[in-house]
Specification:
Layout lengths: L3 H5 L4 E3 L14 E4 L4 E5 L2 E6 L11 E2 L8 E4 L2 E3 L2 E2 L3 E4 L4 E3 L11 E5 L2 E5 L10 E4 L4 E4 L10 E5 L2 E5 L9 E4 L4 E3 L11 E5 L2 E5 L2 E3 L2 E2 L3 E4 L4 E4 L10 E5 L2 E5 L8 E5 L4 E7 L8 E6 L2 E5 L10 E7 L1 E4 L2 E4 L11 E5 L2 E5 L14 E4 L4 E4 L10 E5 L2 E8 L3 E8 L4 E3 L11 E5 L2 E5 L10 E5 L4 E6 L10 E5 L2 E5 L2 E2 L3 E2 L3 E4 L4 E4 L6 E2 L3 E3 L2 E4 L3 E2 L9 E2 L3 E4 L4 E4 L14 E2 L6 E5 L13 E5 L2 E4 L1 E4 L3
Parallel strand pairs: 1-2
Antiparallel strand pairs: 2-3, 3-63, 4-31, 5-6, 6-9, 7-8, 9-10, 11-12, 12-13, 13-14, 15-16, 16-17, 17-18, 19-20, 20-23, 21-22, 23-24, 25-26, 26-27, 27-28, 29-30, 30-31, 32-62, 33-61, 34-35, 35-36, 36-37, 38-39, 39-40, 40-41, 42-43, 43-44, 44-45, 46-47, 47-50, 48-49, 50-51, 52-55, 53-54, 54-57, ...
């Protein structure tokens, strides 16, 4: 038997513990762990997982094949055999939102491009179509028709360098190239066919599978170099009505028929390998998009039933766990516009506006242990629209409203609240971050002026915390971080706008950072480099199509905001009535709030656990 050294050229490393694997390195890396007495190997994981459901179940739709796993487009299709659709939906990696409708309802259309620059070409709605439409991220516009009306073509490329090929009707070998304005003839396929998968670019495309004409299915693969097609190695399972994504040297295909298939195959530029992972739901006439074979999306289609389900495919040396919001305990005192502090497993809720109203708010305080809320000693002064930060055993409350604006400061020691140095001026609807002895109080309303500055608190006294850059939200913004590394985002911009701005604080001054994806009142938690902005109230936009309370959540990585999984419950009351605990950005707690128009009617809480990627290490065994 050959030894590892003779195969790899190096010896197996002898280590007392597993090495810290911060990247994928190379699959198959082997070492011996002398502590556990086992051989270990870095192994690849291939798996599908559930994504968010489409709003409208469809099959035979077009998709943005050049999109990424977190930014895709699915358009047109049919909800039944002759019920053609104009629906367009955008995928953000967790959920689908409705985009602008196609001008022409149709199915079996070709699609290529990205979420913000896509092309829909041809199709069928009682007859073959030549119409072409372009999508700009919000609406479709009709452009130059394809030279020959057709349906069931393969497609690849981008809006300014696209490609369609094949068709359901003769001539099935034709290829047409698109430059963003005009169509020109390209090289013919070697094997004409329909219902194939297409992926790649205009100068490096793949045409995979398809049908020569029922019932003959194809296992052919052809590569395109910008002028001519070349036949290369076949796929392992002949099929039609499949989909694919990726590049000419790193592609994946899935689904198809007959028989109805759940098989996934990966292409490395030479060979097709059947993945050990399969679609959980076998389907045909499905959509797909993704940038590489290692990360893509399969969606829609049918298997007797028209489907709305989405499956994400990952082929990685990392084990990927998706972020999730899960149900937490029920609060005892319902009230919106309350304040929060602590962590996901040791949270604190205080104050708020109860359903009975009265304009005075509440003094109620509750502690959270990771599963349930317990009422504890109350604050000294009732209020809502107050803000707080710190830990469950060392929190601080600032200002609020109780018939009039307040300037109260109170500190909590895990048992009792104690009144301490008052805020220099009355303040409500502000936000705060940091700890009890080193906090920042930012923004808010003093009864006559929207505040565009901040104060620092050292546990005893207040001092200036600097002035915001212009056009920064002043009321009910989200916040995260510490007194020397803070973050402020979203909120209300007088006189009537919602904020999208993010600014960072370094302990002395504020500076602009990259904007949030959507404008909103929100709460916040986390750190300056790992923050969370859950739900709240937002304007209408591509992520949240209708203005109002929303589910959409965003995460900040120190540079950019990105979508993460949505809340389970919409909560907010005009000005962000939900407050999240000041916990690390990979975990979070949100509670209470209200569902417009009735104030204070949500008593639930939700816990956030962020997604993870962990390098997969397996133990080698002998037999």
């Amino acid at each position: 038997m050959a030894e590892y050294e003779s195969i790899k050229g190096t010896r197996v490393k002898y280590l007392s513990s597993d090495p810290t694997l911060t990247n994928s390195s190379t699959e198959g890396q082997v070492w011996y762990n002398s502590t556990t007495g086992t051989n270990k190997v870095l192994s690849q994981i291939k798996a599908t997982s559930s994504g968010g459901n489409l709003n409208t179940a469809r099959f035979g739709a077009g998709s943005s094949g050049s999109g990424s796993q977190s930014s895709g487009l699915y358009f047109g299709g049919a909800t039944a055999a002759t019920t053609y659709s104009t629906a367009t939906e955008e995928y953000n990696g967790f959920s689908w939102v409705n985009g602008g409708s196609l001008g022409l309802a149709r199915y079996y259309l070709a699609g290529f491009g990205t979420q913000t620059a896509a092309v829909a070409a041809g199709g069928y709605n009682g007859g073959n179509k030549s119409e072409v439409e372009e999508y700009d991220g919000s609406s479709w516009s009709e452009v130059t028709d394809i030279p020959t009306a057709g349906r069931s073509q393969g497609a690849a490329g981008t809006l300014t360098a696209g490609l369609i090929f094949g068709a359901a009707d003769s001539p099935q070998v034709k290829t047409f190239e698109y430059d963003g304005t005009n169509w020109t003839a390209g090289g013919d396929l070697n094997t004409g066919r329909k219902y194939m998968a297409g992926t790649g670019t205009q100068t490096a495309a793949l045409a995979v599978g398809g049908s020569f004409g029922a019932p003959i299915q194809s296992n052919d693969t052809e590569e395109y170099d910008g002028s001519a097609w070349t036949s290369v190695n076949d796929i392992n399972t002949a099929r039609r009505a499949l989909t694919g994504f990726g590049t000419q040297t790193s592609a994946a295909i899935g689904g198809g028929t007959p028989p109805l298939s759940s098989a996934i195959e990966e292409y490395d530029g030479t060979n097709w390998i059947t993945s050990p992972a399969t679609l959980s739901t076998a389907r045909r006439y499905l959509g797909g998009f993704g940038s590489l074979s290692s990360a893509g999306v399969f969606c829609g289609g049918k298997n007797g039933t028209v489907l709305n389900s989405t499956e994400e495919y990952n082929s990685s040396l990392n084990t990927i766990t998706q972020a999730v919001w899960s149900s937490g305990g029920t609060v005892n005192t319902i009230g919106d516009v309350s304040a929060g502090a602590g962590t996901m497993n040791a949270g604190l809720k205080f104050g708020g506006y109860p359903p009975s109203g009265g304009g005075t708010g509440t003094t109620a305080t509750e502690e959270y242990n990771g599963s349930s809320w317990t009422s504890v000693n109350s604050m000294n002064t009732a209020g809502y629209g107050l803000t707080g930060t710190g830990l469950q055993t060392a929190a601080v409350r600032f200002g609020g409203y109780s018939g009039t604006n307040l300037n109260n400061t109170e500190e909590y020691d895990g048992t009792n609240w104690t009144a301490v140095t008052a805020v220099p001026s009355t303040i409500s609807s502000a936000t705060s971050f940091g700890v009890q002895t080193a906090a920042v109080l930012a923004g808010g309303y003093d009864g006559s002026t929207w505040q565009q500055d901040a104060l620092e608190y050292d546990g005893t006294n207040f001092s200036s915390g600097g002035t915001f850059p212009s056009t920064t939200g002043a009321q009910y913004a989200g916040s995260a971080g510490t007194q020397t590394a803070g973050l402020y985002f979203g909120g209300y911009i007088p006189p009537s706008a919602l904020g999208v701005t993010t600014i960072s604080y370094d302990g002395s001054s504020w500076s602009a950072a990259n904007n949030m994806l959507i404008s909103r009142y929100t709460s916040g938690s986390g750190t300056q480099t790992a923050a969370l902005a859950p739900g709240g109230y937002s304007n209408s936009n591509s992520i949240n199509p209708t203005a109002g309370n929303n589910l959409a959540c965003e995460q900040y990585d120190g540079t950019n905001w990105s979508n993460t999984c949505s809340n389970n419950i919409t909560r907010g009351y005009q000005i962000s009535s939900n407050r999240a605990s000041n916990a690390p950005g990979t975990t979070g707690l949100v509670f209470g709030g209200s569902a417009s128009p009735s104030p204070g009617n949500i008593n639930s809480s939700e816990e956030f656990t962020g997604g993870t990627e962990v390098v997969t290490v397996s133990t080698l065994t002998t037999s």
